[in-house]
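re: ur question from yesterday

yeah so i grabbed the chain u mentioned. its 503 aa long if i counted rite. heres the sequnce exactly as i have it in my notes:
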Amino acid sequence: MNGLNVMAWIELSIAVVVGLATSIGLITLILQASWFRCLADRPSESHHTHKTPISRLGGIALAGAMVAVVLVFSFLVGPGMLLKDDLWLVIPTSLAMFGLGLWDDLRALGARRKLLGQILIASVAFFCGIDIAHFKLPFFNQIIDLGIWAWPVTVFWLIAMTNLINLIDGVDGLAGGISLMLMILLVYVSMQAGSVPFIAAGMLGALVGFLRFNFPPARIYMGDGGAYFLGCLIGCLTIVTSQKGTIFAALAAPLFVLALPIIDTSIAIARRGFRGLPLFRPDRKHIHHRLLASGHSRRTVVLGLYAFTAFFLVLGFASFCWHGQYFSLFLGIGTLTIILVAGKFDFSREWLSLGRVLGNSMETRAEIQYAISLSRWLALEGARAPTVESLAEDAVFIARKLGFESVRIKLNNQEKNWPLLDSSESCHSYRHELPGDQDCFIELNISCRDSNRTEDANRCKKCRCTSDISADLLAEGWAKAVGDWQKCHRRPVRFQAQMIGKL
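ran it thru and got these structure tokens back, copy pasting raw so excuse formatting
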């Protein structure tokens, strides 16, 4: 190994140490500082898997680690290298995306506002110079000038990368671990790209420090701020590394590592689209949620998905080493692996029955649209209802409309039950807790035909699918209504004493 290589490895090691130390130091400060804890008290959404409030400000440590690495290397080698490698654009773009996500962590912005913000940030980055202006076809060695398509392609790439990381941040340690593997890959593929490997190495160290607090059971989450920051940074670094798209392997290699979020997101979009649900509506139907519901522990799920991603990391390395020449072969190996792994789980086998899934989804689409309308009406009643009792009666009215046979609501150790229908058939129960409060919940029950006949079994499965979604929608409307009622009246959410009991 010559002197230059030795010096490069020393600098990479320094970047890892700086990122690691900064990340651990900032996370320790966040967890100990009461001011940060107050900022992080925003209740969790219903699709999150944790039951107790956990700080969502881990993204501050990740962004701070990158800034620390940049400052250290600016001091050691001077700012000229950062300016030469377009990092003067990468850094503010990533921090802007971090700011958007942090804003949402502190005060929910809504999916549309976040998407508009992402489009604005990605567009500014494009017009400032971070662009995929050319694209090299891997098999024909031909470079295509994207022309006017460069803008939408670049914006799509940055937004896709940003949201892919955010969408898998649903179980402790998963998004951080996959991002860590991506940084390992970026260090390797960007060795000839100036300062890019040092930034990637610094983030590698930062993610190791973050996972010390984020691995199950997590003490802190990266939040939307951290996920947006990592996704945008990865998207920008891949563009810089690929020399604006002319090196196909540098763009394709990270896609192998992102196989899990790409598959999960594609399935989620198809699932919501077929059923008439908003495409950006969060739910608990992602792959990691399904694995948790199957009885696996959080650590088992995370380690299993790490192993899955590590296999695709190897494919990414191989694809880059062969300059994308065998991309089709590695893609085929990856596809075959996905099919074999998916066949091991009952919930994934349903995805292969596309005709039946599509048919059932289209049949239930009208019912789901009806449930969405009722849920939105309930949410609007939160600011108008004079009492909690009247708001609960509205929820019961909707539950009856949706076919549920009993409702049970508990608020701060006060419980109330509404039996709506009598049924001797087997009953399915859906219990949804208010975000951040295990002692407050709404429980919905519905009966379903139980038969060994195939026709009845299929009808029961379709009934379960509709009632699952209806229960989720009703619970979301109830949680939003309760939150708005509390904001308007500034009183604890409680039933009147004379109203408690079974009616």
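noticed a couple things. The first strand starts at residue 134 and ends at 137. also Residues 454-489 form the longest helix (36 residues).
anyway ttyl
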